[in-house]
């Protein structure tokens, strides 16, 4: 049986997921497409030679009897409404980040999903599907380093454009750590602080870069995340977990070891798309397999909510220079971790 | 369009490829199955819930009008006949190692394929699809280390069973290096020598383990391959290319870096199946995409022939203790590298 | 010419320096020894077969016309008086940490040294003589990573005894980073903050371990130092400097790379004495050579003062939980860096 | 007590040892100097401000009653005579490589030393004093990898001058491996073979570079040593020991890890003098300490003989292209390893 999928939003990420479903993954088919720009939707259908219906109205796509699952890859502010509509139709929905514009919006989705009685929502936090983070989590869970006490992390991009603002350091960059570290530790954040190191001269005039975000979890784990989006040298994601008896670090991507010109060296990626390319495949295959099989198991609406709450406090901390509380509602049993 | 595939042979590797085509890869479907043991073929159809016809006769499967491409994963001695039959039908065929029992058999296949006027055969040398070897080849081709002069390689297994014989060190173990190193260098072997180091006490009584195979290529590159199949500590594949201006080494598999018990360490795989698991997916997806698109581009019948000739000389060298010539026929233009 | 040295204090570190001067280094000789415990001084003379005079009174040793330079390795609270006495005699003096019990005491020494008109004091901050830190500093100075923006450091000991207190995390452990990082950056600290991660269960009941110390420098560099003295797995010193165009890390000690039991691994030291053993030799040889040659060039009385001021603020920050100012006096031209 | 040393030969290596004894090491003093060029000897005395007597005749230096030990750093062909003269005087002698021009000459020295009844000769094979090789040997001896079965080694220089000949690849380059590998394994060589890979275009016209030397030991260990003296990229010494249960590799020199320009990299040395600089200090300090204390323990006259015999067979193998026997006399009990 092939899962019949409707896609709302055919921008870059929407097209990428359509390509994935059509040319790489197994067991799914795009049979309906919508975009606010009908011309772009039509072009996408042609480009990927889809046997798919063009819906002018996203809600008609969601209601289409042939559509068994929905992908929401439209503009962020529209996510909440489309996800709620899919839940109302009882249809599984994969929604790109952010799940909703506000923490309240995320909660509304979580409430609707709980009311529906089963998991229908998977959020596009792909790092949970990265083999490296999975291996790191396994080491922690197997007791390889004892109880985690501290995390030292870095999220470095070679450069960002003029349109990148300080708050995007939280909502576009740190957001990935906010999701994946919580999942890594099975823990929740309780406070955030932001400190500003000396500015690099390679950032555009309006941007304080780098920033260091200090987080504290309910169990007392202290996390520092260096966010440095003009580091010049590469796209470099680091995560070291310091436990009671040892430390464990996120694997570096595999690379040829070169001895040349008086250096032993290996390559650092420069394009973020390459870094987690497999994770994008895995998350979407997991969605397809989950819908067809034993239910969804990936990032939940609650994960979307948790990331939103933490991001809000980090934004506050960016401005206040103080330690800000991260106050989440109590997690419903429905979202208890496996 | 979904490629309709018929599979001959439903042993371990056959079932693995069926699983791959059915649950992981994109664009193909198993619609016909044969095995010398019809019961096993039937069980496989049930296990993977295939919508496939059971053929009692492999040649009827090959002739089946619905079958657009054939997978040969049966017992080695049967490969040649099935591949030739597929060629006779003008059908693309993916054949597991060995392509034929003898170099002469490989040549017969190459002749038939040439007579057919287009590439129809892909041999299951999956290492050419390994990302690590691909990256290594790219470094060489881009001139990153100058012209290659020497290769130092190792093929280590943790342990082998009593049924493993000295000649299997060539035909089952070294065979992978024989294929991939030739492809890595775009070069041909001209001689082989085998030397026997001190025996490990961890091999069974009848087995000289380790062995070192010394190869020479037409361009004068010297290769040493350590074959050590009872190394105890892991499944470890190493390949260092020494060029005129630098050296390049096959990437180690990614792994969590652990600091624990006074050691910095990372994991070595112990199961060979894990080591090249992605390469198996890539080779078969490439076959499917090639058949559906711009033609086959993977390991050719000529590659199968070249590996067979080299293996024959290595077997001779194992016994003679001398430098043995590796004499291949001239490569037809049909098989000129891309 | 052999430099004639008098040593005050023959405890562990005193004896170690005597052994060094007598059996390892070049150009110096211990000719006078004092200890508050004359018996211990006598035993030391015998043990190292010194041709040295036993002084019952430390000040008589300092005044001894044969003594050309003084080593102060006595109990901390006595350092200031002995160093001042040596300066009064116009004799070069090597003093172990701490230079004085208080920042004010360090300043008194600096004042006396300036009044003497030439450098007479070298403080025993041996990390400035570690080859690794020296190489790191060279990379920074050569512009290899652009201007430094952040430092991520760790100081980990496998375990500490019951007598180790929280304040010792600053005065005995962090003190090394306080000295060496300032030297590495040619910069001064302006604030300190201490945060407490989840406690390890492997520390004794009274000790909050680990701690994270956050420092800020005059140029805006942000430093985080993880102090973790019961990390179990080894003695591990880490220092990564993040600059505008790249990062540079303190070299790991050289170690045999082992492939064994499904791990690639190298050794981590467990004994702090091994980690900087060469640096101890280099600092003392530099003192000897400096006295005999072109003057002292190692850690100055001002460095001793700077470390004392920073440590005082860190101790405050440990208790207040707040960001504490580090306010140093203006550096005299006498102590301008080379 | 200071050991009084006489030095014969004040060329580059002679001056380097004099500097070492005078400015770096402990417990020795150069009190007599000879060189075939008296002017050069005089200049050396001035340069290092030695309180030393100039001997016009080397044999008068050896006979000088004040001279307690002799350093032979003169032209190779003179070594044998000077070492024999020192033995005749009952004086300990440190002799640079080669101990003698021929294996027969080495034997004459060994015979004379045995006749003297105690160890008087230390040969300047400094690699036995390298910390890396020492650590590697310890791992092997402690059973960390089981019994050694194979060694894969490389000796790479960035470049050599026009005067470097093919035979120097053995006598000047490989000679270090011939000594140190034998010591590493506590084993003796029994055969040698040389194969010639594709020539690099970066060697001068007359030189076949690289070469691969294959050695076999009495216990059956197989060794391959790649000798590549125009590798361009650095001075790189590699040694991997493959044992029954694991592998161990010579540590890489410590280096700052840099992340810059899309590469993680560390430095490779380019100057051979830097690579083993500490080992030179250790070997000579060991000689001084041995003479003054419990006797010599470093490389023996027998080690000099063994290296000479092996080198002779390698030179033969270079020309014959065949496997050549390495036939040593039986080791006298006098030279039994510790």
Automatic annotation (TrEMBL), chains A, B, C, D:
Entry's EC annotation: 1.1.1.18
Catalytic activity: myo-inositol + NAD(+) = scyllo-inosose + NADH + H(+)
Name by which UniProt lists this protein: Inositol 2-dehydrogenase
Subunit structure: Homotetramer.
Pfam families with a match to the protein in the record: GFO_IDH_MocA, GFO_IDH_MocA_C
Organism: Acidocella aquatica
Functional description taken from the UniProt entry: Involved in the oxidation of myo-inositol (MI) to 2-keto-myo-inositol (2KMI or 2-inosose).
Gfo/Idh/MocA-like oxidoreductase N-terminal domain boundaries: 4-125
Domain Gfo/Idh/MocA-like oxidoreductase C-terminal: 137-322
Family according to the record: Belongs to the Gfo/Idh/MocA family.
Enzyme class: oxidoreductase
């Amino acid at each position: 049986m092939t899962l019949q999928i409707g896609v709302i939003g055919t921008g870059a990420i929407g097209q990428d997921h359509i390509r994935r479903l059509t040319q790489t993954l197994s067991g799914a088919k795009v049979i309906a497409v919508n975009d606010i720009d009908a011309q772009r939707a039509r072009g996408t259908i042609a480009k990927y030679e889809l046997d798919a219906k063009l819906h002018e109205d996203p809600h008609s796509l969601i209601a289409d009897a042939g559509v068994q699952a929905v992908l929401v890859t439209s503009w962020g502010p529209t996510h909440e409404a489309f996800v709620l509509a899919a839940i109302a139709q009882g249809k599984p929905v994969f929604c790109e980040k952010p799940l909703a514009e506000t923490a309240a919006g995320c909660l509304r989705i979580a409430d609707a999903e709980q009311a529906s009685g089963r998991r229908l929502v998977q959020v596009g936090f792909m790092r949970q599907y990265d083999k490296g983070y999975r291996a790191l989590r396994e080491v922690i869970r197997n007791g390889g380093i004892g109880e985690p006490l501290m995390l030292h992390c870095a999220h470095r991009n070679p450069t960002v454009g003029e349109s990148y603002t300080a708050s995007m350091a939280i909502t576009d960059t740190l957001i990935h750590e906010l999701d994946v570290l919580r999942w890594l530790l099975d823990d929740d954040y309780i406070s955030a602080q932001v400190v500003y190191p000396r500015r690099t001269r390679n950032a555009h005039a309006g941007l304080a870069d780098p920033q260091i975000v200090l987080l504290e979890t309910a169990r007392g784990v202290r996390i520092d995340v260096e966010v440095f989006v003009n580091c010049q040298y590469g796209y470099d994601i680091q995560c070291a977990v310091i436990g009671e008896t040892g430390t464990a670090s996120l694997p570096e991507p595999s690379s040829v070891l070169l001895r040349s010109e008086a250096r032993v060296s290996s390559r650092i990626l420069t394009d973020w798309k390459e870094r987690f390319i497999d994770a994008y495949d895995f998350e979407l295959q997991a969605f397809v397999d989950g819908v067809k099989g034993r239910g969804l198991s990936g990032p939940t609406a609650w994960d979307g909510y948790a990331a939103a709450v933490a991001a809000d406090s980090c934004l506050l901390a960016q401005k206040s220079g103080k330690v800000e509380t991260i106050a989440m509602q109590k997690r419903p049993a429905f979202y208890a971790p496996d």
